[in-house]
Amino acid sequence: MTTGARPASTAVYLESGTRRVFACSLDWPGWCRSGRNAAQALLALGAAAPRYALVASEAGIAFPDRAGEAFDVVERVPGSASTDFGAPGAIASGDLAPLTAAEARRLAALVAAAWTVFDRVVAGAPPELRKGPRGGGRDRDAVVGHVLEAEASYARKLGLRHRPPSARDAGAVSALRAAIVDTLRHARTGAPVVAKGWPPRYAARRIAWHALDHAWEIEDRSGPPPG
How far apart are CA 150 and CA 36, in angstroms? Predict the structure, then answer.
């Protein structure tokens, strides 16, 4: 009888800055959330599990039914100004491990799925998004432009050089993303691909996180104010 059985723990690392902490899954690239402290970050990560399940489904990878209910903090790493600014910028020790062919294909599939989710959210969102309490926040097309510009920058960390594509140039967007996916799919070493670059595991996490972070932002700001 399995009723009441404890869920399997998800391995995560905590990246702690001076004002913000990120909790990131090691095995599910893009499943990262932050909070003012570790407890808040882990709560936010758990709350995002149903959203991330859609990414795993899109990639055709089984996601545990009770993922997000229990976490195993396997590493704590110091953050930086990037952490406090709002991006997971630290590389965990596990990110330097070599990849098997199956692991590389899995990473690439989850990154591609994160983009699919992002594009679907964008397609269903209004051009004008709800503003924050002080009137801040980009509208939909500005968010898309920001994400694409970041992806071109991230690609350079994998040794790829593409101009930031316009959202109106579907061919350029597809070419950039295909190059990133192909590089991740064929990665075998855990070391950065180029000098001052990113290890493939970290690159997959950062790229998928950025797309999903903004996809979920667009979702949250597309409807009426809560309450």
Answer: 25
Token representation of residue 184: 């991740």
* Shared domain check, 82 and 101: no
Residue 225 covered by a domain: no
Number of structural domains (the chain) is 2
What's the pLDDT at 158? 97
pLDDT of amino acid 2? 44
Which of 175, 170, 123 has the alpha carbon at shortest distance from 152? 175
Q: Give CA–CA dist 168/166, Å, rounded.
A: 5
Instruction: Flag whether 3 is in a domain.
Output: no
| Contact between 115 and 174 (Cβ < 8 Å) | no
* Type of residue at 21: V
**pLDDT score of 4:** 57
Residues 124 and 197 in one domain: yes
Q: Is 18 exposed, middle or buried (0-12, 13-18, 19+ CB in 10 A)?
A: exposed
> Using CA atoms, how far apart are residues 89 and 76, in angstroms rounded to an integer?
13
Among 90, 122, 157, identify where a domain stops: 90
pLDDT at 1: 38
Tokens encoding 220: 């949250």
Which regions of the chain are under pLDDT 70? 1-6, 133-136, 225-227
